[in-house]
Automatic annotation (TrEMBL):
This is CHODL protein. It is a single-pass type I membrane protein. It comes from Alca torda. The keyword Membrane applies. It holds the Pfam family Lectin_C. It is found in: Membrane.
Amino acid sequence: SGQKVCYGGLKHSCYKLAYFQDLSRRVGFEEARQACEMDGGALLSLESEAEQQLIENMLQNLTKSGSGISDGDFWIGLWRSGNELATSSPCPSLYKWADGSISPFRNWYTDEPSCGSEACVVMYHQPTANPGLGGPYLYQWNDDRCNMKH
């Protein structure tokens, strides 16, 4: 399930947001990726500041609609495969888009990515959390453990 919104003329012309207030319906990264692919799409690759802004606006509209969205981060299609840890490249450069996009655009929260055992990426959506060093936990990206439920 989810809300599908389409625009003309953009590279990604349709977007589908899936938000589950019911914690038991939230899924890990791989399940989310498969759900998108079964739906004919892919987990979102955000390729520009403009696209990031578009998604932020869509999330703001979703919360305004009175659906009562509370804290709950959203998986995006950025991840790092575990077998690349042995390389000499700095960790942030190891993150790749699951749909094959080579866009260098990133919107990390301050001090992210923390790397280590966290290899899959969420867009923060924690409106009730106290702000951290990088401000409110809203819409910036954070690497998280891939088995976390979002």
